[in-house]
Amino acid sequence: MNKKAFFLSLIFLFSSYNLFSQLPSSPKREFRGAWLATVVNIDWPSKPGLSSEIQKKELLRILDDHQRSGINAIMLQVRPSTDAFYGKGREMWSRFLTGKQGLPPNPYYDPLDFAIDEAHKRGMELHAWFNPYRATFDLLDSHTNPNHITKQKPEWFFTFSGKKLFNPGIPEVREYIVQVIMDVVKNYDIDGVHFDDYFYPYPEKNQVIRDTDTYQKYGSEFQDISDWRRNNVDTLIQTLSDSIHASKSYVKFGISPFGIWRNLSQDPEGSQSNGFDGYGKLYADARKWTKEGWIDYINPQIYFPFFYAAAPYEKLVDWWSNNTYGKHLYIGQAAYRAAENREGWRNRQQIPDQIRYLRNNARVQGSVFFSSKSLTDNLAGVNDSLRTEFYRYPALQPAMLWLDPIAPNVPREVQVKAFDNCVDLNWQAPLKASDGETAYGYVVYRFNEGDDINTSDPKNILQLSFDSKQTSFKDNSVLPNKRYTYIVTAIDRLKNESDHSAKVGIQTTEVSTSTTGGK
Question: pTM here?
């Protein structure tokens, strides 16, 4: 090794030591998400046109795998390209689901209803992920139903790089998109509405956004077409935020923008980076959306390794953590890159080290991984790391006090009974809190005799339930002839947690042995 390489190695080791010198324990509250992509069948279903039964089985396998890995939120892509993975709305069934746009599942079921129910059974939130502006994934006429909105309202769209996209500068377009999303908010028991980074299209060589006529018609108050385009996106975000929270105050609204807002060389408020910026290239002023309070969480896609010159992971995490204005920050993690043979990614500890780094920042509340299959395929052992280390214990999703600051009351009359190899718990629902809510679900804790009653340590959690009717639990993990203490708390829809119930102790029974011979 030459002197220069040796010196650089020392710098890296010293920097790494500073980054990870204080490693936090597993947090009680953390957002642990996975993007479940349906466009071109990236994650689910495995191919178009499968029977409803096979689609369900595939989804259950995915959810079970994520549950074992500690994931507590699913970002399900329900509108990949102006089509639907749900039935109670105004847009057509997706060809990525059934093989033909407009064709319903056979036999009929509603994939979104099914996904919500199954996610909630596993203590996971379900965020409906929409692509607001992508109208078609290609220009093949056979892929688009004659009654599709692109055929009914061709003046609403422009063509860019082999796709049709909504023109966000047309007021009727923004109204239509809000209505599409509000169909889902009103008709489904979702926990959140989620956008990714696709707003105006990513620049491509020899491709032009053909919206000059629209700008001349609607943008007279803006001297620069770039400012007008950003305002078009801002208007959609603000209107949608108001609409969501007016309809259901507990539904979260979050966006996952490109990892760089603006570079320091472009703006004194920008990050210490030198890469592609979402503000100037995609007309997405993500920092403004948090500053104005229009979104509840920001989920930047920081798909870069540590010390990467154009976009250093550590600098971008720090920058976003200083620009969330009190709203939640979940870091988009590039699980799909974990096994790449490229700068930074050759280190198979890149993702684990990134999780350690963000956990050292109190202004970061979690991670979301792209994509689901990258986790279930265990690229570079990331899924193993989640199961054995980072997500070994369950976590409640972080509370959002600006949406609901009132915790439920305490569960009542907890009772326990010991049997040969289990303990049965039963309790009564809490009385209504001051906001009129009782309980959306419950958390069951168990402690060994002599342990402090510490509800902040997730290793004591036995069960997280999103079912208000489930006022019992069977603990099948007890040891014989041992004394345990149990407590129960209530959670509301936004995961505010009550004080714990009265402590209930119990002695488990001894294992009985038979002294009778014979068969």
Answer: 0.94
